[in-house]
Write a structure and sequence with these properties.
five-stranded antiparallel sheet, alpha+beta, three-stranded antiparallel sheet
């Protein structure tokens, strides 16, 4: 048995055990991971701040009150097309009902006339004119002077002065785009 001349016999027989210090050390994230974590936290914080600044605040326990009537609170009934004073004009007549809580003083509607292939030939916005009297003898009665009250139904008229000759002469598509009320 060969022996090391620099070590004693006891040192050769007993192996020396050293602790693995690399395994016991806590690993630290490198710079890229740390920067990514800080970036994500900043984006989340910025998103939260933006959300709370842009979301409207409502007082707890108070109902939201509309500042003006909504188009969805008006309903059409009995729409008809009546010939106008010239060949390419007509009136769209019918009744409108106010189902909302506010009196209505003005209604603007979008009217779409379609052609023989259901393509839109004319897309215009026109005000509805309030009418009064019975269906045989109607006279203009503007909503501005005589508002359409809640739960009330009134005749109306909408005029189209320049309809294309080739429109399909069916009841046009009508959609209310804005409504004004006594408070709005």
């Amino acid at each position: 048995m060969a022996t090391n001349s620099h070590m004693s016999y006891q040192e050769q027989k007993k192996p020396q055990l050293l602790p693995d210090t690399g395994r016991l050390k806590r690993k630290r994230p490198d710079g890229a991971i740390l920067r990514l974590g800080v970036g994500i936290a900043a984006v989340v914080l910025l998103g939260a701040i933006t959300y709370f600044l842009l979301v409207p605040k409502h007082a707890p326990g108070k109902a939201s009150i509309s500042a003006r009537p909504l188009p969805s609170q008006l309903q059409f009934h009995g729409l008809q097309v009546i010939a106008g004073p010239t060949d390419n004009s007509f009136y769209l007549v019918g009744h409108i009902r106010n189902t909302g809580p506010d009196a209505v003083t003005g209604i603007l509607a979008e009217v779409k006339l379609r052609g023989p292939y259901e393509n839109v030939l004319l897309d215009v916005k026109r005000p509805l004119e309030g009418m009064s009297g019975d269906d045989n003898q109607l006279a203009p009665d503007p909503f501005t002077k005589d508002p359409l009250e809640p739960n009330d139904t009134r005749p109306f008229r909408l005029s189209i002065t320049r309809a294309p000759d080739w429109w399909n002469h069916n009841i046009p598509e009508v959609q209310i785009v804005s409504v004004t009320g006594q408070g709005g």
